[in-house]
Write a structure and sequence with these properties.
By secondary structure, the protein is of the alpha+beta class. The chain is built from 9 helices and 5 strands, in the order βββαββαααααααα. The radius of gyration is 17 Å and the shape is globular.
C-alpha cells in the first residue's frame, strides 16, 4: 500500500497530477479541492489511496489526511466508486460534505451530478456515525502544505482547462461546452477554473 508520495510536480490539471519521486513519475487522480491546494506548488506531499481493480491500479491523492479519510468512507458505501467520490470532493469541500452527512442534508448531496436520492440517503445512513466519530477524534481537521511556487497549466484559458477536466471526469464534451458557455455568460470572464468546474458539476 502506498501511503503517501512526496516529490516535484511534473504535470498537473484539475483532475490529475504527475509527481516525480526521484525519477519515477506517479500519475495520481486528484479532486478539485486538492488541485486548488497544490496547483501553485512545485514540491508536494500527497496522502494516497491505491485502488486495485482487475483492469487497472488507480492511485488517488489528497492534500490533507482528512480528505483521504472522507474519500475512503465514501467509497465504502455501496454504489459509490472512486470516480464518484472524487467528483463529490470536486463539487464540495470535505467540510461541506461532512456537514451535509451529519445534518442529513440529502438535497445538498443530490445537487452533485451522479448522486441520486437513494445514493444520498445511503451515504448519510452509512456514514453519519463514522463522520461524527472522526470529528470528535479530530481526524477531520485540515493539515497544511508547504512548498515552492510553480505556475501550472498557464497555456490554457479557464474555459479550456475546465472543459478538459470535465471531459476527463467522463462528461460529454459537447454538453459541457454548452454548460460552460452558459456559466461564463452569467458570471463573466473573470470566473476561476475551480468555480467553473464546481458550477458545471451542480445538478
Amino acid at each position: 500500500m502506498i501511503a503517501h508520495l512526496e516529490g516535484n510536480i511534473s504535470e498537473i490539471d484539475p483532475t490529475a497530477v504527475i509527481i516525480d519521486c526521484q525519477g519515477v513519475g506517479y500519475l495520481v487522480k486528484i479532486s478539485l479541492y486538492t488541485y486548488g491546494a497544490i496547483r501553485e506548488l512545485q514540491k508536494v506531499k500527497l496522502f494516497t489511496h491505491l485502488q486495485v481493480r482487475e483492469d487497472a491500479h488507480v492511485l488517488y491523492g489528497f492534500s490533507e489526511v482528512r480528505e483521504r479519510k472522507l474519500f475512503e468512507h465514501l467509497i465504502s458505501v455501496s454504489g459509490v466508486g472512486g470516480n464518484t467520490a472524487l467528483m463529490m470532493l470536486s463539487s464540495l469541500s470535505p467540510d461541506e460534505i461532512a456537514h451535509a452527512i451529519m445534518t442529513a442534508n440529502e438535497k445538498l448531496l443530490q445537487g452533485i451530478k451522479g448522486i441520486g436520492g437513494k445514493t444520498a440517503a445511503r451515504i448519510i445512513l452509512e456514514l453519519k456515525d463514522k463522520i461524527k466519530v472522526d470529528k470528535l477524534a479530530g481526524d477531520m481537521s485540515p493539515t497544511g502544505q508547504s512548498a515552492l511556487a510553480l505556475s501550472a497549466f498557464s497555456g490554457m484559458t479557464q474555459r479550456e482547462e475546465a472543459l478538459r477536466a470535465l471531459v476527463n471526469l467522463g462528461f460529454p464534451k459537447a454538453q459541457m461546452e454548452k454548460k460552460l458557455d452558459d456559466i461564463i455568460r452569467g458570471a463573466g470572464e473573470t470566473i476561476t477554473v475551480e468555480q467553473l468546474i464546481r458550477l458545471a458539476l451542480k445538478g
